[in-house]
């Protein structure tokens, strides 16, 4: 992951606009939001799924950069006062704190837009059908039927809390799962694979994404408990139902591990070539940050 992180950082650095003297802070703030931080998990999924089908690394890295642009935009907007109102992200002040709210909104808009410009460019793939398939899949994953729809459900849950696992699963599948699914399917799209192997990657992404979210809830609760005594995590403090608030710590942890195992089983069809993806499924439940 560290190696992919370095490679995608280089591609992002090349693609993002360079700050110009006398120009507004937009380009500088885009670089502030997208460079030098994060686990680069989604790029790693794109690169790993692409390796399964022997896709050229430079194509995979451009798709990886595009999905990371979308992810960074979502974090910048999620941190805004109108949404989660956070002061810190990736260990530094959030974009609206380092710059201002209007700049942070524009940074998100510009990263979102540039992601599609990158996918539509002939450098990403010589075949226009592949480029259209990538654009369509990423648009679905990030729009109202995917991440943005999930964020809308999340905002609504602040007013009317969710009470059952089915509703929380649906919310998380859209809010965070859809981008994971795109990242895993990207290799199959780039490799022009339309058979059950694409379905296997979707199934893997579904289970791994839920395991990631349960682990995130566990980190939230345990991180807070370590930091400031026994106070609840952020979502719980806000009265939001989470996997952990409904299942309890132990059952939630067991469920995350079960989902990671299940995710790995979907990869049987790829044999040892999918070991990187198996490692991701275990990493998301074992991580401490
Ligand atoms: C504002 C349209 C819009 C969408 C926001 C994904 C999202 C939707 C918001 C992120 C809020 C959040 C902290 C969700 C919890 C799970 C999550 C996606 C954490 C951040 O992803 P990581 O752990 O972050 O991959 P890094 O920094 O490592 O890239």
UniProtKB/TrEMBL annotation:
Needed cofactors: Mg(2+)
Keywords tagged on the record: Isoprene biosynthesis, Magnesium, Metal-binding, Transferase
Pfam family, one: polyprenyl_synt
Transmembrane segments: none
Record's signal peptide: none
Molecular function per GO: (2E,6E)-farnesyl diphosphate synthase activity; dimethylallyltranstransferase activity
E.C. number: 2.5.1.1, 2.5.1.10
PROSITE patterns documented for this protein: POLYPRENYL_SYNTHASE_1, POLYPRENYL_SYNTHASE_2
Membership in a protein family: Belongs to the FPP/GGPP synthase family.
Listed name of the protein: Farnesyl diphosphate synthase
């Amino acid at each position: 992951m560290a190696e992919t992180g370095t490679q995608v950082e280089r591609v992002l650095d090349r693609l993002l606009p360079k700050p110009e003297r006398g120009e507004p802070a937009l380009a500088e703030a885009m670089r502030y939001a997208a460079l030098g931080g994060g686990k680069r998990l989604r790029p790693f999924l794109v690169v790993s799924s692409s390796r399964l089908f022997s896709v050229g690394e430079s194509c995979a890295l451009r798709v990886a950069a595009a999905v990371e642009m979308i992810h960074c935009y979502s974090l910048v907007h999620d941190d805004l006062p109108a949404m989660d109102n956070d002061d810190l992200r990736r260990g530094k002040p959030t974009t609206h704190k380092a710059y201002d709210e209007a700049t942070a909104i524009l940074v998100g808009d510009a990263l979102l837009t540039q992601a599609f410009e990158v996918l539509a460019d002939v450098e990403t793939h010589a075949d226009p059908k592949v480029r259209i398939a990538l654009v369509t899949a990423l648009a679905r994953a990030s729009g109202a039927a995917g991440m943005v729809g999930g964020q809308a459900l999340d905002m609504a849950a602040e007013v009317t809390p969710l009470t059952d696992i089915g509703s929380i699963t649906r919310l998380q599948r859209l809010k965070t799962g859809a981008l994971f699914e795109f990242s895993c399917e990207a290799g199959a799209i780039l490799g022009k694979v339309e058979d059950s192997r694409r379905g296997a990657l979707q199934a893997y992404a579904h289970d791994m994404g839920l395991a990631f979210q349960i682990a995130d809830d566990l980190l939230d609760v345990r991180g807070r408990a370590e930091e400031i005594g026994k106070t609840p995590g952020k979502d719980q403090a806000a009265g939001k139902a989470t996997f952990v608030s409904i299942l309890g710590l132990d059952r939630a942890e067991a469920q995350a591990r079960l989902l990671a195992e299940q995710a790995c089983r979907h990869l049987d069809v790829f044999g040892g070539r999918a070991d990187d993806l198996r490692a991701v499924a275990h990493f998301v439940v074992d991580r401490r940050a």
